Inverse folding.
């Protein structure tokens, strides 16, 4: 069996005196979509920043493809890991095409000269997310949903096997949320070497699309496993303080309706 | 924009600069411009204006990308103020030195570097905090530097004080050839750094974390670019004082016309800034001829309102 795309062991971190993560393990194997959920302040985003190496944590180690992340240069990391941020308040009028082309940066020389292959990958990524008609538009003038597609296209142009996403469906309506996860599953299915880890607040979509759900609470893993096993009424009450009704439909899919806050 | 299109824009800007220099050689207060006036006075002055304009505009473009803030400018951020403070302290303490003396550029560079380091420390600590706090730091640092400048000038004799205040408004004046060459070297080094990191700045402009995720060693880029801008700004301030807003106006206009790709924006800012300040200095010489205006008064006249316009746009764009 090949090495996991990302493996984190014993990640612990505190901002000042307040511990944010306390010994979290996470493994992203090829072919898997791992969702990390949990209440606000549970440490989800901090975990994501630890996985991508932008946050040097107090304790714990991250490996990318079996190699310790701490020993890799930023360029080497970017050559195997793509990070899709929640949004970007970038103020400059870069065109959509320029934004997507930046995904090729980890493979270019210092002066940023793009080869025909780089241009082709950028064009393919634009087409895959229906951005070709917007290619010349200035990024800051786009709607929130369009910006999200640009950031996904940038990861696609990067052409690496491991993706980390920070709340990919935040502020998306039902339809866009579904098609976003549909896109991620399609991307995953196209090559068995690929894997996705993402942070989300949307338990319903996570239950529907994730292979594994990691539930964080107070900086620790409260539960992990198949979403249908993790999301029980008792656990939702314990982690979120919410009384919820959890059912299955005829196909065994999870149905979740929050009823009331318990605290 | 393709490589060919970028080259065409740069050629057009180079032609614009050539026309601006030709115009500045052709006009002036002398009724019959002799060869000596044109080659001995107007040409070195045009060259100096071009170097200073290029240095300030390029620095503005670099700082805007580095701080992810379209309002960044050497003057607004207080880096020019730091350079001026260094220059004035050199004058006050050095006694025999005068504006344009060899010690002033060195100390002005040190002042620019010190102000940059202050910004650098703040930018590094700020993380994902709004970059506007850096502008506030610049305002505060400028006020602080001004008060120290007043103290320093009060310690020197009165004849000098008048000269210092003219210098603080910012004007292009004749300097000795050796100093002109020194400025040219500083600027060439700064521009080399700028061109080397132009593509990385496309990524840094997206935010430090995104740039990091795309393989950029952000602290290294920040160190080099702050050093390069301090070199260009220090040299500019040492010879011409505080000429404000060139770094704001020129990159802004170029971005509106040609987009944000720094592989074009950086060299275009150098050429455009040179042309802009040559034209501004020519206007400063002729609008109230035979009296000369300090060119810094002209650039601030245009730059102040533009700054407010950009600030308003920024404030309406950002949610909080």
């Amino acid at each position: 069996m090949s090495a996991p795309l990302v493996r984190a062991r014993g990640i612990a971190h505190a901002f000042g005196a307040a511990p944010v993560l306390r010994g979290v393990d996470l493994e992203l194997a090829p072919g898997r979509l791992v969702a990390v959920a949990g209440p606000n302040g549970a440490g989800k985003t901090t975990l994501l920043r630890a996985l991508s190496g932008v946050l040097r944590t107090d304790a714990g180690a991250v490996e990318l493809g079996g190699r310790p992340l701490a020993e890799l240069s930023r360029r080497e990391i970017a050559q195997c890991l793509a990070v899709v941020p929640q949004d970007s308040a970038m103020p400059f009028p870069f065109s959509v095409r320029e934004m997507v082309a930046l995904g090729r940066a980890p493979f270019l020389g210092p002066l940023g000269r793009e080869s025909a292959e780089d241009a082709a990958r950028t064009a393919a990524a634009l087409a895959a997310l229906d951005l070709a008609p917007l290619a010349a538009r200035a990024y800051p003038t786009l709607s929130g949903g369009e910006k999200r597609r640009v950031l996904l296209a940038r990861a696609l142009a990067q052409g690496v096997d491991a993706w980390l996403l920070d709340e990919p469906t935040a502020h998306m309506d039902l339809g866009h949320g579904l098609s976003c996860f549909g896109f991620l599953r399609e991307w995953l299915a196209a090559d068995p070497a690929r894997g996705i880890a993402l942070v989300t607040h949307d338990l319903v979509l996570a239950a529907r699309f994730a292979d594994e759900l990691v539930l964080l609470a107070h900086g620790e893993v409260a539960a992990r496993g198949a979403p249908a096993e993790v999301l029980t009424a008792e656990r939702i009450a314990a982690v979120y303080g919410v009384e919820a009704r959890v059912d299955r439909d005829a196909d065994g899919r999870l149905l979740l309706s929050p009823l009331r806050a318990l605290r | 924009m393709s490589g060919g299109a970028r080259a065409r824009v740069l050629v057009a800007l180079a032609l614009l600069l050539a026309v601006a220099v030709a115009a500045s050689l052709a006009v002036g207060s002398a009724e019959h411009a002799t060869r000596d006036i044109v080659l001995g006075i107007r040409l070195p002055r045009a060259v100096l204006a071009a170097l200073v304009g290029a240095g300030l505009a390029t620095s503005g473009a670099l700082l805007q990308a580095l701080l992810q803030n379209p309002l960044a400018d050497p003057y607004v951020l207080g880096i020019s103020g730091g350079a001026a403070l260094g220059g004035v302290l050199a004058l006050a303490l050095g006694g025999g030195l005068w504006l344009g003396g060899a010690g002033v550029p060195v100390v002005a560079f040190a002042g620019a570097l010190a102000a940059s380091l202050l910004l650098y420390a703040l930018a590094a600590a700020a993380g994902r905090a709004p970059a506007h706090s850096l502008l506030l730091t610049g305002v505060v640092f400028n006020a602080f530097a001004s008060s120290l400048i007043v103290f320093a000038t009060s310690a020197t004799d009165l004849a000098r004080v008048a000269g210092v205040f003219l210098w603080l408004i910012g004007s292009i004046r004749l300097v000795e050839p050796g100093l002109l060459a020194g400025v040219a070297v500083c600027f060439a080094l700064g521009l080399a750094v700028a061109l080397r990191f132009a593509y990385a700045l496309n990524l840094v402009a997206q935010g430090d974390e995104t740039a990091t995720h795309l393989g950029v060693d952000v602290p290294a880029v920040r160190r080099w670019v702050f050093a390069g801008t301090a070199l260009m700004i220090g040299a500019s301030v040492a010879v011409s004082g505080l000429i404000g807003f060139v770094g704001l106006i020129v990159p802004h206009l170029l971005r509106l016309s040609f987009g944000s790709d720094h592989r074009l924006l950086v060299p275009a800012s150098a050429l455009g800034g040179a042309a802009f300040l040559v034209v501004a200095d020519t206007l400063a010489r002729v609008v109230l001829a035979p009296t000369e205006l300090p060119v810094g008064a002209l650039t601030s006249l245009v730059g102040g309102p533009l700054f407010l316009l950009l600030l308003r746009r920024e404030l309406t764009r950002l949610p909080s």
User: Anything to note?
Assistant: The first strand of chain A starts at residue 6 and ends at 15. Chain A has a mean pLDDT of 92.
